[in-house]
TrEMBL record, chains A, B:
InterPro entries: Homeodomain-like_sf, HTH-type_Tx_Regulator, HTH_TetR, Tet_transcr_reg_TetR-rel_C_sf, Tscrpt_reg_YsiA_C. This is TetR/AcrR family transcriptional regulator. Gene3D superfamilies: Homeodomain-like, Tetracycline Repressor, domain 2. It comes from Savagea faecisuis. Keywords: DNA-binding. Residues 5-65 form the HTH tetR-type domain. Residues 28-47 bind DNA.
Length: 193, 193
């Protein structure tokens, strides 16, 4: 497996920094190689091209995150608690890594179709955990059964994602993780007094 | 004023179609000129470059939309009704124009900083109407006063925006406008039974 080779993860981690600092367009493969401390040619032993690097970055980092979330989804805790952990963990991974947050909220929003399709495929795996938690909550009578589960999933992800993007766009100044309580309130009970 | 010249709006409308069909990257100015039925040189009488066309498209289309929303925000109706109209109008403008929806949900998500800043400035004007409605709702005792208004604004926009993007990404197949009731329910009352 590629990822067992130490240089693979070294290049992935370097790519996050270079893409965050230079934008995806300005991140030549040579820059990523330099940051990783490997020869340009070494990159092509592991990756086909720059798009392949971006997809691999997302896949690797999301893979670890999805594992953590999957564990939470299967804990013997309430649906409310699972949703709380979902929001909190999402915010935490972004807040803990300045560069990762920029790449996730800005640079991964690529418009080219083939790239976008690959990004969506990885995102789908993450969002399927939302479906798992939501379905369980509906079956247990905790959540409303009158709203389409796809809509619930999109609405929750949309809230988390947009608050994260606003945080990145305004310079990562306020505390993102500390929004968890309020967002959790909103998800469960809405705005109405 | 530029926009009083008939060719200006003709180019704007052509750009929406060309960008939706070819992606921003594949939308050469010559293609937009051809679609608009004007000479290439004519474009440069109105626009500095392709980025200027994209920004102008967003500015013009949003300008009309913001006017409609501003009128709704000032109607003598309840906060709940204003929020309903906000969601419904947002979905309606996207659902009524296949090309505009693609440009808004995909092609406007540009990562280059200067472009992004200009797009954000226009978005800020739209979102200030959310703030107006939310503040009024809090003052009238209809909405919770325990949640930061910036967070409320981001959460509502996030729900609307993500449901719209999912609708575009899955091929504009389901009826977006008909999600209004469920989204309005979620915004006001949340997921909890
Ligand atoms: C062909 C086009 C046709 C269009 C036709 C119409 C179609 C329908 C409608 C279309 C919808 C629009 C779609 C737009 C698509 C393109 C744009 C996107 O990508 S959208 C998707 C991606 N989303 C985006 O791109 C939007 C990202 N957001 C932003 O860029 C900005 O929030 C802003 C520009 C919207 C406002 O910025 P600003 O004026 O600065 O005001 P803020 O209040 O935000 O911040 C003020 C201060 O408050 C701090 N603070 C904030 N929140 C919190 C909090 N929760 N807790 C605590 N603190 C918080 C913050 O740190 C700051 O601190 P400081 O500086 O004072 O110390
Ligand atoms: C450096 C990286 C490090 C990452 C580390 C970890 C960091 C923390 C976490 C990060 C978060 C992830 C950020 C990702 C950023 C990049 C991606 C974005 O741009 S995200 C921001 C932008 N967002 C996006 O890019 C996501 C956009 N969404 C999508 O692309 C897709 O929804 C999908 C791929 C997620 C699932 O697709 P699919 O598997 O197809 O499943 P569906 O269920 O959706 O659809 C199935 C069917 O249901 C129909 N239907 C759907 N909804 C409704 C409804 N409400 N009512 C009625 N019907 C509805 C639909 O028409 C379809 O019909 P048919 O075909 O069966 O006839």
């Amino acid at each position: 497996m590629k990822r067992e080779k130490p240089k693979y993860m070294q290049i992935i981690d370097a790519a996050v920094i270079v893409i965050a600092e230079n934008g995806y367009h300005g991140s030549q493969v040579a820059k990523i190689a330099k940051q990783a401390g490997v020869a340009d040619g070494t990159i092509y032993l592991y990756f086909k091209n720059k798009d392949d690097i971006l997809i691999s970055v997302f896949k690797e980092k999301m893979g670890v995150f999805i594992e953590r979330l999957r564990e939470i989804a299967h804990r013997p805790i309430s649906t409310e608690e699972k949703l709380y952990e979902l929001v909190k963990n999402h915010y935490t991974i972004l807040q803990n890594d300045h560069h990762l947050a920029i790449v996730t909220q800005l640079e991964l929003r690529q418009t080219r179709k083939p790239l976008r399709t690959k990004i969506s495929d990885i995102l789908r795996e993450y969002l399927s955990l939302y479906d798992y938690i939501l379905k369980e909550g509906i079956e247990n009578g905790v959540l409303k059964d009158s709203i389409d589960i796809r809509l619930l999933r999109q609405a929750i992800f949309g809230m988390i994602d947009e608050t994260s993007t606003s945080w990145v766009m305004t310079g990562q100044k306020h505390n993102l993780v500390s929004l968890t309580d309020e967002v959790h309130q909103l998800i469960l009970h809405g705005l109405k007094k």
